[in-house]
Amino acid sequence: MLYNGAKLVKKGYYMETNLVLEGIKFMGLGMGAVFLFIAVMIFFMGAMSKAVHKFFPEVQPNLGSSSKNTQDINQQQKVVAAITAAIKHHRES
Amino acid sequence: MKFFIIKLLTLLMLFSAASYANTDSVEASAEISTHKEETYKTQSFSEMISGFITSTGINAIINPNPNEMNAHGEPMSDFHKGMGRVIMILITFLLFYLAIAKGFEPLLLLPIGFGGLLANIPIANMAGPDGFLGIIYHMGLSNQLFPILIFMGVGAMTDFGPLLSNPKTAFLGGAAQFGIFGTLVGAVALAEYTPFFDFTLQQASAISIIGGADGPTSIFIATQLAPELLGAIAVASYSYMAMVPIIQPPIMKALTTDAERRIKMSTMRHVSRLEKLVFPIMVLVLAILVLPDATPLIGAFMFGNFLKESGVVDRLSDTMQNALINIITIFLGLAVGSKLAADQFLVADTLAILALGIIAFSVGTAAGVIMAKIMNLFPGNKINPLIGSAGVSAVPMAARVSNKVGMEYDRTNMLLMHAMGPNVAGVIGSAVAAGVLISIFK
Hints:
The complex is a heterodimer of chains A (93) and B (442). Chain A has 93 residues and is an all-alpha fold.
């Protein structure tokens, strides 16, 4: 009974406004705000990436990988040397 | 000598006074205990048994107590006191089944289900203001603390690298929010043109946020705009998130051609650590400037992410990703479960919420896919429309679904990392949508 009364009050309050029209207004505002935010975010993401790459270039991607490669080669050479030394030692003994 | 005797006498007097005071308190306590004894009447054994029977759960269900109030101190119908509770307890068993046997978001559905089971126990009144579920609810859910803390943990688990390497995919995350606002219109249309449902704009907004596919955001909005619908909204939100692998693929396949599903996307560029570190601050500043109402969610999210990317507070970021989010998940689940009380869940509105929720999900998925197709009309790198569906948040489930559907058509096409971009953008998008709804009703 009480709940029904509350319902009537609600209905009466919104009677003069078309709820669907209100909903469509919300949709326009909401989607507009979401897209505006995302668009601004994308713009600043691009600008920020460019700025970071220009002013604080990361040394890791180019130099890092090449140094890793030379390290790897060094490591491999060491392993090969160790194996040949071991084989030589084995044969001699 | 005389002086000594005086001293002794005063000492004795002090003692006697103290002991007198003592006996006073003893007498007082004796009085209280006699009072207690007076209130306890001896009962015959048959009286005790009948008293015990009236306090059993069976009796409470069969003969509802006319004076019993619900958690808000309002009267409720006999159905909600009796059979309604039994039905709700069976529904929580269904949630257990879905969580354990079907693997539907067990981390949340189990605490929610068990909270619901406890909340529907008659007499104990655990969901009331003095019950432990009610205390947990008031501790962190009615004031929106728990969803914010969950967002911190989610932020600490998120990697924005895929989004930063291909920023334009963020539009897909924005488009998927159409699910929210499309459903909002649907809900108010239901209220306007059918006699069965009567949603206010606040309630319609709280329901439609299910389309954001983001549990914490749904709870955040529901507690603010329509706390009476919280239980149904949270259950719908989390169970649909778990059903993403079932709901999304048919929509994705219906809206794309075979050739589109086979589009291979260019490999991603490397994202430097500094970019990842600046990004959370940048988004937060944008939110501050554009939409301060969204900053509680975005601020917590970016705080977690910033700690993770800073790389110097691994202990804190580790706590947020594991211990903190796990503890809060338990509390959040129980608190949401307390809203599964029969008088709040077994109403016609719940059915409408479940129906509108799945529509919101589907519309969001479709909007993301269609947005990807629209973006492919413009020159530039082509986007595989299958990643559009990941624009609904549901991290990382939606991205995995995109990957899986892509692999069905081309085993070598790895879309997972490409789909993570719109996926995390979807989280930001739903937080913005939530901020807009809050700002409207302020």
